[in-house]
Amino acid sequence: MHIDLTGKRALVTGSTRGIGRAIADQLAACGADVAIVGRDKTKAEAVAAEIPRAKGFGCDVTVPAEIETLIADVEAGLGGIDILVNNAGITRDNLMLRMKNDDWDAVIDANLRSAFIAIRAASRGMMKKRFGRIINITSVVGLMGNKGQANYAASKAGLVGLTKSVAKELGSRNILCNAVAPGFIETDMTAAMTPEAREALIRNIPLERLGQTRDVAGAVAWLASDLAAYVTGQVIVIDGGLAA
Predict the structure, then answer these.
(1) From 23, 117, 185, 232, which residue has the greatest number of CB atoms within 10 Å?
(2) What angle do CA 164, 104, 183 make, to 5 degrees?
(3) So which residues are the catalytic ones?
(4) DSSP character for 88?
C-alpha cells in the first residue's frame, strides 16, 4: 500500500543534512508539507528550496525559548503540525572518567531535553485536533550502550523512556508516539571512520553493511502514516541486526 501523507504538516528537527534530510525528503515525497529545521536558518531555507512544499526555519534546540518559538512559527507557517520528528542531536564523545560536566549537559540538552520541550509545545495543537504523530530518533547505542559515549547513550535511552511515557499520556487523544533506533548509517560521521574501524564494525552487523539514510526515513514515513495507526510506544530498530 502506498504511503499517503497528503495534507499533513511535518516538522523535522536537524533536517538540513544526514538522516534528518532523508526523513524530510521522504515525508515530502509522500505528500506532506515539511518544516526544515537547522541551527543555521539560511541553510535550512536553502535545503527547503530543494524540497516540494517545504519551508526553512532556524532554531538552536539547546535553547528552550527558541524551540517554543519554532513550534509557534511552524504552526503559523504551515497551518499546524501533524507530524513531529525529533531528530536533532550531537555527540561529545569521551571516556566517562574524562568526560566533563559541560559535555554531559550539552548532549543531554540537545538530544533529550529538546525533544521533551518540542513535544510539550507541539502536543497542545495536536490535542485540540485529536490527531498527532510524534517520532523520536533514538539509537541502538541507547539500547546497547557504547564505550566513550555515556552521555550520548544516556540521552538516547532517555528518549525511549520519554517515548513510552508520551504514548501513554496522549494515546487517548489519538496522538501516537514512537521511536526509531538507527544503527550505523552512512553519514558524514561514519565517513570519518578509518577503513579498519569500518571493517571491524561491519563484521558485527549480520547484513554486513552500513545502513542508508533512506532505511531510517522509510520507517519514519510508515510510523507517520495510517498504516501504523495502531502502533504507539514502540521502538523500531533499523540496524541490520546489530543489536540482535
Answers:
(1) 23
(2) 55
(3) 152
(4) -
